[in-house]
Amino acid sequence: MSERLRVKKTYKLYVGGKFPRSESGRSYPVTTPDGTELANAALASRKDVRDAVAAARKAQGPWAAQNAYLRGQILYRAAEMLEGRSGQFAAELAEAAGAEARETLGTVEEAIDRLVHYAGWTDKVASVLGGANPVSGPYFNHSKPEPLGVVGVVAPQDDPLVGLVEALAPAIATGNAVVVVASGTRPLPALSFGEVLATSDLPGGVVNVLSGKVAELAPWLASHADLNGLDLCGVEDADLAAELEAEAAGTLKVVRRPGGSGGPLDLLRQWIEYKTVWHPAGMAAGVGGGY
Amino acid sequence: MFEYAPAPESHRPDIREHYGLFIDGEFVDAENGATFKSINPANEQVLFSVAEAGEADVAAAVGAARRAHRTVWGPMSGTERGKYLFRIARLLQERSREFAVAESIDNGKPIKETRDFDVPTAAQHFFYHAGWADKLEYAGLGPGPRPLGVVGQVIPWNFPLLMLAWKIAPALACGNTAVLKPAETTPLTALMFAELCAEAGLPPGVVNILPGAGATGAALVESPVDKVAFTGSTAVGRRIAKAVAGSRKRVTLELGGKAANIVYDDAPLDQAVEGIVNGIFFNQGHVCCAGSRLLVQESVAEEVLAKLKDRVSTLRVGDPLDKNTDVGAVNSAEQLERIRELTEAGGAEGAEPWQPACELPETGYWFRPTVFTGVQQSMRVAREEIFGPVLSVLTFRTPDEAIKKANNTPYGLSAGVWTDKGSQILWTAERLRAGVVWANTFNRFDAASPFGGVKESGYGREGGRQGLEAYLDV
Fold it and tell me: pLDDT by residue (tens digit) across B67-116?
């Protein structure tokens, strides 16, 4: 009896909850460090960036409007899905790094635990960061963190799963939607992670994953007028990072520079801005300054 | 109409004929000898001349600030730093009348506002942040927050002393030293503040004041500071964000706005009209968070407009030092020209301008309060920040339409909502893309309340616990 032929997976983009190929029709070979071909990944284009940003924008408002408990459960669900597929991810990470799967299982477990951690943040971040402000007048005054909106992420190049989760989870936990450019040389775990999110009840478009060349895709993110934040944590070329930051200045995006570190609360704070609401508290409250 | 006798402020501050740059605790002239003049916009008379800082002076000031940070201010305990700031707050309170008059003369804003708002709020800002200096580890930003080092700060002309306070108080409380550039047209109270720092015994170099124009600001942004904080136009904010790209400099920006002030049909209309007037005519409309777009529900639009015109007709425009004055002088000829140009564009695009019949002084820069009706969202008066006493009135039918129109702007600094229904306030506030939302009030500010925008109104907060983040490495 002949040996069964293995069914190989086609790695596609994850945009708007669907798994399209690049509209450009392009793909590129993904290999192990020693050059063994693993798969062909879609080589995303400018148009894919635009489609992904449009999908993220559409999804962001409803996502932020969901209650925090539900967002937390969805992130936790993603952890459950990842746990269930930890063997697959360990194998993909091992192939990407030229290692053994037993060596990379711990990395997958770390990614799962990070997801669980951020799942628990969704319904606490507003009370930790926001609160009532003791203004010197008869006013109720309250500040709370709100998502910036849509964030573009250049994911870490050599940490294709934990680095990805660490970049995505704080942004979506606080109600943002993201467009992530996966590691250029090791995109497969990120593309598979899209499948995890797709089966976690995360609304389509909240996370969009593109594979391709950072130097080609990141400038379109940096200049896109409908993006509110730009995470350059995965940009290794300092000159490119400076150019992207300068480009992002055109629409005053909030930028996270490469090499930025910090604890979970710093990452959560990165993609929020505060809204402060005032209301008179007195029965005959005045309304105007000097009038 | 009922006429008031003039009641001009009689107590005049001692304004020197010439001011230097304040570097390392001393007033010095610019290395290249450059000077410029500050005029009183209410009568176009020269008030004083002042040194204009160039690149060499910026380098000297940043060097002094660096030294002060390393040797004195950085090592000092939070308690001691706080005591200096409390002292500054007290001195500002003591000299409040003098600062109020000086601010009014240099800026053109009514004495009523500088006396009751600008100066007391600035003093509060120092008092509030003084108390933070020894409590930073309790600010919820991390266990060991550290100062950034030397901060470069550039402020606008609309609230000269208050913007200085918003910048310097948190910077110093967090252990940084500061180099601040006041606006070209309004350096007076910043220079008086420099004198006050010396009076308070603040160590030399902790606060440095560099009068100048755009070139001075650009030099400061390019200098080896650790952080840039800017309040001003979105165009300059973009240039600053670009200039610091690729560096390690932190940046916070508080930029322009085109705030919507939404009036629902169930709002208490008389109060709403007061809020609309305060929203756009406070400080001659030279307010980044001014309620410059009135969105009024169609069913009450006529009634609101009639009441609004009645109310605006009673505003007194004129001598800023007259305690009865509601609307003072426009800050500069340049700003007056911009207001005129945009107002003319409004008329040319088909909006209907209305102005009360008030007399304007013969000299100085003045602009009548103006209300545009029949405004479409595509018109320049509905899209661009006018930064003057010009209100654009649009209407809406449903709450959803109000939100869509309110958010239809690249800006996101502030917004207002007027309604008697609590749930409608919360529903509306939730959906407005703005950093500050005033419900059944407008233009309220407090040291304990974070202020700042979203989208192209910039990033970072000033005031409150959240505002400390801009000056700390956590």
Answer: 999 999 999 999 999 999 999 999 999 999 999 999 999 999 999 999 99
- Residue B1 forms part of a structural domain: no
Residues B251 and B264 in one domain: no
Pair (B81, B217) in one structural domain: yes
Tell me whether residue B75 is in a domain. yes
Residues B428 and B460 in one domain: no
**How many domains does one find in chain B?**
2
State which H helix or E strand residue B294 sits in: strand B293-297
**Partner A contacted by B237 (CB < 8 A):** yes
- Give the H or E element holding residue B439: strand B436-439
Residue B217 maps to which CATH number?
Answer: 3.40.605.10
Q: Do A134 and B448 touch (CB under 8 A)?
A: yes
- Helix pair A68-84, A101-119: axis angle to 10 deg: 170
CB contact under 8 A, A136 and B436: no
Quote the domain boundaries for residue B233.
Answer: 18-255+454-473
A135–B446 C-beta distance less than 8 A:
yes
Q: What is the pTM of this model?
A: 0.95
Q: How far apart are CA B76 and CA B405, in angstroms?
A: 51
A175 backbone φψ class: left, alpha, beta (φ>0; ψ -120 to 50)? left
pLDDT tens for each residue of B322-342 = 999 999 999 999 999 999 999
Q: How far apart are CA B164 and CA B161, in angstroms?
A: 5
pLDDT at B121 over 70: yes
In this prediction, residue B7 has a pLDDT band, given cuts at 50, 70 and 90, of confident
**Nearest by CB to B238, which of A143, A252, A279?**
A252
Question: If pLDDT is split at 50, 70 and 90, which confidence band does A282 have?
Answer: confident
| Class of the CATH domain delimited by A38-280 | alpha beta
Q: Which residues of B touch A126 (CB under 8 A)?
A: none
Substitution target in B449, B455, B459, B462 with the highest count of A β-carbons within 10 Å is B449
* pLDDT band (50, 70, 90) for residue B213: very high
Judging contacts by C-beta atoms under 8 Å, the chain A residues touching residue B241 are: 245, 248-249, 252
The 10s digit of each residue's pLDDT in B273-322 is 999 999 999 999 999 999 999 999 999 999 999 999 999 999 999 999 99
Q: How far is Cα B436 from Cα B458, in angstroms, rounded to an integer?
A: 13
Write the pLDDT tens digit of every residue in B249-269. 999 999 999 999 999 999 999
Give the CA radius of gyration of chain B: 22
pLDDT at residue A284 greater than cutoff 60: no
Which chain A residue lies closest to B426 (C-alpha atoms)? A277
Domain ranges of chain A: 38-280
Q: Is the same domain home to B362 and B382? A: yes
User: What's the CA gap between B461 and B451, in Å, rounded?
Assistant: 5
> Residue B444 falls within a domain, yes or no?
no
> By the 8 A CB rule, do B370 and B352 touch?
no
pLDDT of A31 strictly over 70: yes
CB contact under 8 A, B459 and A285: no
Phi, psi of B311 (to 5 degrees): -70, -40
Share of chain A above pLDDT 90, in %: 91
pLDDT at B14: 87
Which of B142, B434, B440 shows the shortest C-beta gap to A280? B440
Q: Is residue B8 part of a domain?
A: no
What backbone torsions phi and psi does residue B344 show, to the nearest 5 degrees?
Answer: -65, -40
Residues B290 and B172 in one domain: no
What was the pLDDT predicted at B1?
Answer: 57
- Please indicate, yes or no, whether residues B466 and B434 belong to a single structural domain of this protein: no
Contact B258, B375 (CB under 8 A): no
> Is B466 found in the same domain as B384?
no
| Domain match, B217 and B310 both | no
Statement: residue A95 has pLDDT above 80:
yes
